[in-house]
TrEMBL record, chain A:
Species this chain originates from: Mesorhizobium muleiense
GO terms for MF: sarcosine oxidase activity
Source superkingdom: Bacteria
Name used for this protein in its record: Sarcosine oxidase subunit gamma
Biological processes, Gene Ontology terms: sarcosine catabolic process
Matching SUPFAM superfamilies: Folate-binding domain
Automatic annotation (TrEMBL), chain B:
Ranges where the SoxA A3 domain occurs: 521-601
Record-annotated Aminomethyltransferase C-terminal domain positions: 909-994
Pfam family, one: Pyr_redox_2
Family the UniProt entry places it in: Belongs to the GcvT family.
Segments forming domain GCVT N-terminal: 618-889
FAD/NAD(P)-binding domain: residues covered: 172-447
Name under which the protein is recorded: Sarcosine oxidase subunit alpha
Alphabetized GO MF terms: sarcosine oxidase activity
TrEMBL record, chain C:
NCBIfam families per UniProt: soxD
A GO BP annotation: tetrahydrofolate metabolic process
Official protein name in the record: Sarcosine oxidase subunit delta
Molecular-function annotations in GO: sarcosine oxidase activity
Record Gene3D superfamilies: Folate-binding superfamily
């Protein structure tokens, strides 16, 4: 059913330049490094329980069913955002929208590759940096490696994915990326404390 | 100047560096690591401020956060000027500049101190009585003068150049207070491996161990033990130790706010360090180890500089190595002041006499004092302090009357006993209980997962305190239910107390020296200048509850929140009322425990981080073109694109004309976009919008209206059907988040049976509107896979294809009345596609236009803007949009609300056009409309102007207005009264340009 | 800042992630168009605003984005329990909140 929106990966190459928000921005201070990550393919996937198996198969990654978890395989990560909602991120250039278009079970797949910007926050002070504006408990017991959650950072909504004990991926909407990167930059300067 | 009161060999600052500082322009030398108070005392300076109401000279009462008197202004530069800094807390740094407050022209001679003499006018409740007559005088005479004379310090008048940081933190056990109790609790909790945070407001941990010379723990001096224990804690990964950190607020579910003062003690403030750091801590368990605060004695002129708490004098001596005088008197009702006398005597300072209000106390400290040759008097009171700018004597009398004796002294050390610090416990909504035997309020009923230990719990004696605290720390860790033994946990044993001091007993209320003589000023609350007499007077004037007494007298309502005064005030009120203390009640303590700066509350949310500033993908292009931007919610939108020499009017006129003559490009990216996907998508749309959707063919668009359940317009926008099961919905820029919330609400809670999902795609797509007769010629060369002929792509249709090789959703639609398109492309390509379209547009003379021209162009066509022409009380019928309501529909949100009697009544305000009789006059938006300009004031207003512009295309002004019964008034003349003139207007239809709509295909 | 247990996320999360959405268990009529004026008034305008136990709707706006129901004591501002949207009003309330 998603065919209508699944055409991005097909046919002609763009004749114009892609200009991602904050492209290439980085900041490194004691204890933490921030970097705006390269563009990725993303979909917002919505589906009832009955469709999860078929969609998992088509996507090549098992859509997680447990709150605040994620699953990853071959450069593709599926983050549980809600009981019928996943954020699927593909970092190896394969379009999950096209994969879902082949699936006939009930679901909604919407391309949001350009909606989100990803920032990596890495280093021993990464959690403290994020905790400057995020009220969640980021200790490993409560947010282990692989855990994912939509939450807030200051006055912006973010999706947080813990990729290692001291490494996070922060996703936000494009127009909030400047705010989020600036916030993390200011917080990073104080996070080693 | 030589620091003459520094005692060689005393104190703990031996290795410290000299710090130069100034106070009221006078230069002094101090020692780094001591407080400003200590440094001033070392230089023999006691007079540091004037009191709030009577402008009486004041010195230091305490050596800590409870200080009511010694408030000074610390000035670093013209922007860094902090008033009301407690000199007893401010750490000295080289170059510190401090000034006294509340005095003019000088501290030693303050004109306003005449208020002290005129004080019968300033008695309790004076605000409510004295200045009430004559009525007008309050505003014009009394208030300005009182405001000038009163108040504490002067607020800085420049933006705060410092920065502040913030951190959310979580732990298993949060220990508040770093004295013996807090340290013991933290040790016990930390060794289990749970996450522990230990915070103390002082620089050095140890609490009262800073001054108690008689405490020995684990074979060491108490203070030394504390330093070692804290070093052990700091070395553990599971422990965070925060000094200079005040827990100021205890909120629901063990959420505690702490402020860490990061750099106020440093000479140089770099950008790298924040001034303060706000910690918002969520703890599974909280251990309150907040100690106790010594009370003063309430006697006549007990506020003279040099009269201070006994424990403060000990802190200055034992911790900072400073003597508070050369010949001190002691006035006490408990044991702990004896230790002060003993310590000072041993340091070579004269102790003139100890005056003990108690009749026949016994104990080893008393014996020791006597053995040192100190004169000890029982059953006697200090009835008066002599001196003005500095205490010069104490007058002693048997407490039941008799002969007076005046003893020369240069300081009086006093102690009425210790008040448990139950502030945080009280903030946690715990209920205190009165212990009648010890005359103390102590924690009674707990409301949260916390426990009080040590002096704040009314536990006496160091040994009992450490037993209690160590057990509580271990239990808190166990109750937190976490088993995550840290890697480098140090297992220890319970600290052993080898020697300790007695703090027992004391008294509450006024001592004999506090009156009843009404001319006597025996202070209860130093900061608000409340005397024992004021409290008595409040009771005599009918105040019965302590809450009333407090408000009438302002006792305990100053910035120190009555840390030293509450219990005395309560006891005096109780005595006057002849009631037991618990029946008079204790006021509830509220956050903050000590004042908190706005900076630390604001934290990062300043400047660019005050609120997110959202910019579109095309923003950099508009910026480079010199666009002027306007704020629309959080978005920056290009308002107009002035060319050299153009003002706003000229630019907007040119943009409007160009769009209709050739074409214009407009950045519409901020429009909200929601993708509605699923087999029941059309059904859902039917329920959320007034329009019919089932029969809308894929590839076609429709203007949709969304109502609230009450029948009023909530939002509007063009909706394209991409497929049977997929709609591309657009919303107003400002409405995007709330429309999404509204749709989700209905989908999740009212229509959960529908198989449909909503996804916000606002930011996925950059949207370039190309409008005008040449729009198709501009777009067509760049498009692949879409037949752009009128037959294949008629007005109000949508196709998917490519533009510049980029996937696009190409809408044929118009918000200008011209042939128009909206090109949706993935956001990262937005600017490049815009540039390509711009290059094509240049071949045809197209312009870029901003939101102002967009507004004018749509108004020329009578297209409404929700939120401007509607205000939440406008129905589709009122807006002339009945045609957009599906007549055959049986349900949609708002269907019933629309039928409410008032919403179908005659005479409702309806949207109409207005033309001014003078075409050059442009109405003001919001201006009121009347039928008869000659009627009496207040006139009957029948409507207001919602949109108004100069229309260069029409060669005249145009306006939209909501007017009662508007559509029945076509051609009528109405009036818009303005301050300088009344403007005549004619009621017209809403379409001012191309009313046949021919240009949509032109 | 309160902690609120989201019945979908199955854990307590900071209040900053949530948004209140008014009183719960106010049913929208299946035949809305035929609702009487009185019934519409009750449905749209009248709210109980109790001192004590209130049943209300919340949305885990910046979390799983689900609407759910909560039982809160307006006197103590404590959440007694939360449950999923569409579930009936709980017959029995937990005695105390932990
Ligand atoms: Zn949730």
């Amino acid at each position: 059913m998603a065919k209508a929106a699944a055409k991005e990966s097909a046919a002609a190459a763009p004749s114009v330049e892609r200009r991602p928000a904050l492209a290439g921005q980085e900041l490194s201070v004691t204890g933490v490094t921030l970097a705006v990550l390269p563009p990725a393919q993303r979909i917002s996937l919505r589906a009832p329980d009955a469709s999860v198996a078929a969609l998992s198969k088509a996507l090549g990654v098992n859509l997680p069913r447990k709150p605040k978890t994620s699953a990853a395989k071959a450069g593709r990560t599926a983050l549980w955002l809600g009981p019928d909602e996943w954020l699927v991120i593909d970092e190896v250039g394969k379009d999950p929208l096209a994969d879902c278009a082949e699936v006939t079970v009930l679901h909604s797949a919407v391309g949001i590759s350009h909606r989100n910007v990803a920032i990596s926050v890495i280093g021993p002070a990464a959690a403290a940096t994020i905790n400057s504006g995020c009220p969640q408990d980021l200790s490993l017991d409560v947010l282990p490696v692989g855990a994912a959650s939509r939450t807030i950072l200051g006055k912006a909504e973010i999706v947080l994915l813990r990729i290692a004990a001291d490494a996070f991926r922060v996703e936000c909407w494009r127009s909030f990326s400047d705010y989020v990167f600036t916030f993390l930059s200011e917080a990073a300067g104080d996070a080693a404390a | 100047m030589i620091a003459t009161f520094r005692i060689p060999g005393a104190g703990r600052l031996k290795q410290a560096e000299t710090a130069r500082f100034s106070f009221d322009g006078q230069s002094y030398a101090g020692v780094e690591g001591e407080t400003l108070a200590s440094a001033l005392l070392a230089n023999g300076v006691h007079l540091v401020g004037r009191s709030f109401k009577y402008h009486r000279p004041r010195g230091f009462l305490s050596a800590g956060a409870e200080e009511p008197n010694a408030l000074v202004e610390i000035k670093r530069d013209s922007a860094r000027r902090t008033p009301n800094v407690r000199a007893t807390v401010q750490e000295l740094y080289d170059g510190l500049t401090a000034q006294s407050q509340n005095r003019w022209p000088s501290l030693a001679f303050d004109v306003s101190a005449l208020g002290d003499i005129a004080s019968p006018l300033l008695s309790a409740g004076f605000y409510y009585k004295t200045f009430m007559w004559p009525k007008f005088a309050w505003k014009n005479f009394y208030e300005p003068r009182i405001r000038a004379a009163a108040g504490l310090g002067v607020a800085p008048d420049q933006p705060d150049p410092d920065h502040y940081s913030a951190r959310f933190a979580h732990c298993d056990v949060l220990v508040l207070g770093g004295g013996a109790a807090g340290i013991a609790a933290a040790l016990a909790a930390a060794e289990t491996g749970v996450r522990v945070i230990l915070a103390d407001e002082q620089v050095d941990f140890g609490g009262s161990l800073r001054f108690e010379s008689g405490a020995m723990i684990d074979g060491q001096d108490g203070f030394a033990w504390a330093q070692g224990a804290v070093a052990t804690l700091r070395a553990m990964d599971n422990v965070r130790v925060l000094s200079r950190t005040t827990a100021f607020g205890y909120y629901a579910q063990n959420f505690v706010g702490l402020v860490e003062r990061v750099s106020d003690h440093l000479q140089n403030l770099g950008r790298e360090l924040p001034r303060e750091r706000l910690w918002q801590v969520r703890a599974k368990r909280v251990v309150l180890a907040t100690g106790a605060i010594e009370r003063h004695m309430v006697f006549a002129d007990n506020d003279r500089p040099g009269v201070m708490l006994a424990s403060a004098a000990r802190t200055y001596l034992n911790h900072f190595g400073v003597a508070v005088g050369r010949n001190v008197g002691v006035y006490t009702a408990n044991d702990s002041a004896y230790a002060a006398a003993i310590d000072l005597k041993k340091a070579g300072i004269g102790v003139a006499a100890i005056v003990d209000l108690r009749d026949n106390p016994t104990g080893s400290v008393i014996d020791e004092a006597r053995a040192l040759g100190i004169e000890v008097n029982f059953g006697r009171a200090v009835i008066r302090a002599g001196g003005k700018l500095r205490v010069s004597s104490m007058t002693v009398q048997p407490k039941n009357g008799g002969g007076e004796r005046t003893i020369p002294v240069d300081a009086i050390l006093m102690s009425a006993g210790w008040t448990p610090s139950v502030h945080l416990f009280s903030q946690s909504r715990g209920k205190v209980a009165f212990n009648d035997e010890t005359k103390r309020f102590v924690p009674g009923t707990y409301a949260q997962d916390c426990v009080s230990v040590g002096a704040c719990n009314g536990t006496d004696g160091l040994s009992a305190t450490i037993d209690e605290a160590y057990a509580a720390g271990a239990k808190a860790a166990k109750d937190a239910g976490v088993k995550n033994a840290g890697a480098n946990v140090v297992k220890g044993t319970k600290p052993k107390v080898d020697a300790s001091e007695s703090w027992s007993r004391g008294m509450l209320g006024a001592a004999p020296g506090a009156g009843p003589d009404t001319t006597v000023k025996a202070f209860v609350d130093f900061q608000n200048d409340v005397t024992a007499k004021d409290i008595r007077q409040a009771v005599h004037e009918g105040m019965r509850s302590i809450e009333h007494v407090k408000r009438f007298t302002t006792n305990g309502m100053a910035t120190d929140q009555g840390k030293t005064s509450n219990m005395h005030g309560l006891a005096i009120a109780a005595e006057t009322l002849g009631k037991p203390i618990p029946q008079v009640g204790l006021t509830t303590f509220r956050a903050p425990y000590t004042p908190v700066t706005f900076g630390s509350i604001v934290g990062h949310a300043r400047g660019p981080l005050f609120d997110p500033t959202r910019k579109t993908a095309i923003h950099p292009w508009a910026e480079a073109q010199g666009a002027v931007f306007e704020d629309v919610g959080q978005w920056k939108r290009a308002w107009y694109f002035p060319k050299a020499g153009e003002d706003m009017h000229a630019a907007v006129d040119r943009e409007c004309v160009t769009v209709r003559k050739t074409a214009g490009l407009f950045d519409a990216s901020t429009l909200g976009k929601i993708e509605v996907v699923g087999p029941d998508a059309a059904k859902f749309m039917e329920l959320l919008y007034t329009n019919p959707w089932e029969k809308l063919e894929p590839g076609r668009c429709r203007y949709g209206i969304m109502l609230r359940e009450d029948g009023f317009i909530y939002d509007d926008g063009v909706v394209g059907r991409l497929a049977a099961d997929r709609f591309h919905v657009t919303t107003t820029t400002g409405g995007a988040p709330r429309v999404m919330n509204h749709m989700e609400d209905y989908l999740q809670t009212e229509f959960p049976h529908l198989n449909v999902w909503l996804t916000s795609t606002t930011e996925q797509w950059a949207v370039i509107a190309v409008q005008g007769p040449k729009s198709r010629e501009i777009i067509a060369p760049l498009v692949e896979g879409i037949d752009m002929s009128d037959g294949a792509l008629p007005h109000m249709s949508v196709r998917e294809g490519r533009i510049c090789g980029v996937p696009t959703r190409l809408f044929r639609m118009s918000f200008t009345g011209e042939r128009g398109f909206e090109v949706n492309v993935p956001a990262d390509y937005g600017q490049a596609v815009w540039e390509a379209l711009w290059a094509e547009g240049q071949k045809h003379g197209a312009c870029a236009y901003g939101t102002e021209a967009m507004h004018v162009l749509r108004a020329e066509k009578g297209y409404i803007i929700v939120g401007q022409d509607t205000d939440g009380t406008v129905t589709p019928g009122d807006a002339g949009l009945d045609w957009a309501v599906g007549k055959k529909k049986t349900d949609f949100v708002g269907i019933r609300g629309m039928a409410r009697p008032d919403l179908v009544a005659k005479g409702r305000k309806q949207l109409v056009g207005l033309k001014t009789k003078d075409p050059k006059v442009v109405l003001e938006e919001g201006a009121q409309i009347v039928g008869d300009p000659k009627q009496a004031i207040p006139m009957t207003m029948i409507g207001h102007v919602t949109s108004s512009y100069w229309s260069e295309n029409c060669g005249r002004s145009i306006a939209l207005a909501l007017v009662a019964g508007g559509r029945d008034r076509m051609g009528e003349t109405l009036y818009v009264p303005m301050p300088n003139a009344t403007i005549e207007v004619e009621v017209t239809g809403m379409v001012f340009f191309d009313d046949k709509g021919e240009r949509l295909n032109g | 800042m309160l902690l609120i247990r989201c019945p979908y996320c199955e854990e307590e999360r900071p209040e900053l992630e949530f948004r209140n959405a008014g009183e719960a268990h106010i049913a929208r009529s299946a035949d809305m168009a035929a609702t009487s004026d009185d019934d519409f008034e009750k449905f749209f305008f009248i709210r109980s605003n109790p001192k004590g136990i209130i049943y209300e709707r919340w949305r885990h706006m910046h979390g799983c984005a689900r609407f759910f129901n909560a039982v809160r004591d307006t006197v103590s501002d404590r959440f007694l329990m939360t449950y999923k949207a569409g579930e009936p009003k709980p017959a029995k309330l937990p005695g105390a909140f932990e």
